[in-house]
Design brief:
By secondary structure, the protein is α/β, with parallel strands linked by helices. The chain folds into two domains: 191 residues, 3-Layer(bba) Sandwich (FAD/NAD(P)-binding domain); 113 residues, 3-Layer(bba) Sandwich (FAD/NAD(P)-binding domain), CATH 3.50.50.60. It contains eight helices and 17 strands. The strands form four sheets. Strands 1, 2, 3, 4, 5, 6 and 17 form a seven-stranded mixed beta sheet that branches. Strand 2, helix 2 and strand 3 form a beta-alpha-beta unit. Helix 1 packs parallel to helix 2, helix 1 runs parallel beside helix 8 and helix 5 runs parallel beside helix 6. It is elongated.
Length: 317
């Protein structure tokens, strides 16, 4: 089946949904596809306290639901559980093959890539085997499973600090393991973590192995300054070691060659344009971006606005 539209948006996080709002309000026939559920990393965030307009904070899933409802009210067509497998450019139109089999195609005049990021794996032995068996990358999803139990949190950025604080609602003790001697996250979050009685910070330390047969039973840790190794007994390990861009689709699409950096982010101009006419990137997947929800929304609006003018200019030629 072939579907035609003015603008196709790939990715249903804040950038994609905001692009959808601005695109349909500009009068463009717009489709948004998302390979999973809407929201991206935001739906795994327990509390969002720096998004404007919510002085008492808002839960990530609720924020996404509000943006989704707004987009639907304006007429955005949303297709979830719909994964793009390859993109080709034919006669200045984008042919996006979906659902991996290549049987369905969406043909669009412009394309906005808002595919976001995914959690990085730590790379520790047994990590993959024990994922879902004590190893997690989502405190919101799995935190309640560790009520009154001891857990480890790995990382030192905003995500690690935010999620460690959230996990104090459940765990009896949290060992926060960070490879440096100071946090990379916001000062206000660092202060809260250091002051919390349930959180013990283990500085200058890395995880060398995750232990357990059927379920996680502990982590082997090593001090990077002294080389001293020890075993930390925990029932769960929450890993927040950074994010990687979701750009495998671009690697699968030879027609889009040359738009990625060495670390696989999409190269754009300030208006979210790539070097390919009619192709845009928005949100965390874009290079040199301040990866915050409010910035992703700004990118989405910018990309959609420029896509509208691109189509308008092409139509009036």
């Amino acid at each position: 089946m072939t579907i035609n539209c003015d603008t196709l948006i790939i990715g249903g996080g804040p950038a994609g949904l905001t692009a959808g709002i601005y695109s349909v309000r500009s009068g463009l026939d717009t489709i948004l596809i998302e390979k999973g559920i809407l929201g991206g990393q935001v739906v795994t965030t327990a509390e969002v306290e720096n998004y404007p307009g919510f002085p008492d904070m808002i839960q990530g899933p609720e924020l996404i639901e509000r943006i989704q409802n707004q987009a639907l009210r304006f007429g955005l067509k949303i297709k979830t559980m719909c994964e793009a497998s390859k993109i080709e450019i034919k006669d200045h139109m984008f042919h996006t093959y979906i659902n991996d089999g290549g049987n369905d195609t969406i043909i669009s005049r412009t394309l906005i890539l808002a595919t976001g990021n995914m959690p990085k794996r730590l790379g520790a032995p047994n990590e993959e085997r024990l994922t879902g068996r004590g190893v997690s990358y989502c405190a919101t999803c799995d935190g309640a499973l560790y009520r009154n139990r001891e857990i480890a949190v790995i990382g030192g950025g905003d995500s690690a600090l935010t999620e460690a604080l959230f996990l104090t609602n459940f765990a009896s003790k949290i060992s926060l393991i960070h490879r440096r001697d100071k946090f990379r996250g916001e000062k206000i979050l660092a202060e809260r973590v250091l002051a919390h009685p349930k959180i013990n910070v283990i500085w200058n330390t890395v995880v060398t192995d995750i232990k357990g047969d059927e379920f996680t039973e502990g982590v082997s840790i090593k001090n990077v300054l002294t080389g001293q190794e020890s075993l930390l007994n925990v029932d769960g390990v929450f890993i927040f070691a950074g994010l990687s861009p979701n750009t495998q689709l671009i690697k699968n699409s030879p027609h889009l060659a040359g738009i990625l950096t060495e670390d696989n982010y999409i190269i754009t101009e300030k208006n979210c344009k790539t070097k390919i006419e009619g192709l845009y990137a928005a949100g965390d997947v874009r290079t040199d971006n301040f990866r915050q929800i409010v910035v992703a929304c700004s990118d989405g609006a910018t990309a959609a606005w420029d896509a509208y003018h691109y189509i308008d200019h092409s139509t009036t030629k």
